[in-house]
Amino acid sequence: MDPNAKVSLVTGAGRRIGRALALALGDTGCRVAVHYNQSEQDADETASLIKAMGNEAITFKADLEDPTQVEDLATQVNEQLGPIEIIVNNASVFDKLGLKEVSAQELDRHFAINVRAPFLLAKSMNEQLTNGSPGKIINLNDWRKARPTRLAYGVTKSALTGLTRTLALSLAPNIQVNEIALGAILPPSDIPIDRPRDKIAINLGPADRMGSLNEVANAMMMLIQNDFITGETINVDGGRHIN
User: Fold this and answer.
1) Domain holding 118: CATH number?
2) Which has the higher per-residue pLDDT, 139 or 144?
């Protein structure tokens, strides 16, 4: 797929990795739907940066926990930009809740945002793309899913891998569905921003460094431009998954 002029939707595109991926798509000429829920000012800035490149960007607000708002989001993007041809499911919930703290409601919330929303967006894309039009879905995941301190997150990210592979079969051959499993790219959002990166006590794996936003964007672009990879997990983690 040549991404130029394609309609792309990036969820959680106002800040951090989502913004970097939205900007990378805008830089290739994509018409970018910048999704946000609470970070309106950040989303507006992302859209402004894409427009400064000479490309089109529109912000869309939706609470991904609400299935009606997810479906409305896909409809609104289609009405204002055209059928969605690229989806990057970046938005997720990453609450620090262990077995004793997590409630059924919190588990449901994580599932709604981390799994159900990508499913509903994929279903909407499939309905919008007719006559065999190509599409790409890229789910942002985590190299480490079994996290006892973030139980609901880990469970739902494991489910996202299953969704990725099942959708790859269900939407073949026209829509390719893959995931990028990230290692240490940015400190978690619940770590103080003034805490030095070299003071974050984690095993960085064989690469012995944190990754860059450009490296994540490069992996995304590779999956968009390659039509023969589907149902795959691309680890961008410095080798942590084999350490």
Assistant:
1) 3.40.50.720
2) 139
